[in-house]
Amino acid sequence: GRLQVDEQLWMARHLLAPGDAKAALRYVQPIITQRDAHAGRVRAEALMLAGQALRDLGNPDNAINSFAEVIAIGKGFELEARLELAKTNMLAGDDEEALAMYQGLTASPDIPSDVAARAHFDSGTIYRRQAERKSRAGDEVGAAELYEKARESFNMLTILYDLPVLSPLPELGFIEAAEVTAELEGVLRAVNFYNRLASHQTYGSGPYGQYAKAMSELIGGRKSVALQMLKLLQRAEGLDARLSERVSSQLKAMEGGG
């Protein structure tokens, strides 16, 4: 038989997570085209999922239109849609538009912490990317200014949004802040962030804490200890891609005599 609307939305959500955007889109498209039958919240959610799928399929313009319509409908997905809209602008390379949107999502105290945390993290990511660009172009003063802004954004996650429910953003915030500090002031000053993460009561014993301990050992000149810890981490199951990439590149650098 035919799927109910809520089943179609459920299917789309489940297909998007592992990255099957094409299939997800097939489930929400009929809901969106039947404008009269599906209004309000159902339509808003369908457009929300369609926007994410379209973005994943490399179609940012249509994704932006979908998110804009969700915001216009105003049925409870607006904040999520504003976040996704900012992220889509960021991925499309429109940094200034994205930063302005993220600022709107961090400026007000009544924005939920999960939304504000993601906005701070993505803002930091943009500033860091801009700083790296300036640095490559030989503009060290401009780069330092942007690295400072990046550190401010990431640091917010280690202070205001250091909540286990937001994991892994706080842990990544510590690591990003450490890496940006290394760019600004050298690796010895970055140890502070690694140590805070390594001794953290919630994350210290987890994979991010282990990575931070390894980095702290490495900076302290205890390369063989760091190497053992990183190799153990590399064998761990289910690491977030952002962490496993770091582990691999550190190991590559160390084993390549770096």
Detailed description of the structure:
- This protein is 76% helix and 0% strand.
- By secondary structure, it is an all-alpha fold.
Number of helices: 13
How would you classify the helix and strand content by structural class? mainly alpha
Helical residue percent? over 70%
- The N- and C-terminal alpha carbons lie at a distance of 61 Å
Radius of gyration: 21 Å
- Element order: H for helix, E for strand: HHHHHHHHHHHHH
- What gross morphology would you assign? globular
Number of strands: 0
> Which segments are poorly predicted (pLDDT under 50) over 5 or more consecutive residues?
none
Q: Work out the strand percent.
A: under 5%
Mean pLDDT: 93
Describe the sheet with the most strands: none
Describe the structure concisely for a colleague.
The chain is mainly α and 258 residues long. It has 13 helices and no strands.
What is the topology?
Layout: H1 5-16, H2 21-33, H3 40-56, H4 60-73, H5 78-91, H6 95-106, H7 113-136, H8 140-159, H9 169-185, H10 187-198, H11 207-219, H12 223-234, H13 241-255
Helix pairs in contact: 1-2, 1-3, 2-3, 3-4, 3-5, 4-5, 5-6, 5-7, 6-7, 7-8, 7-9, 8-9, 9-10, 10-11, 11-12, 12-13
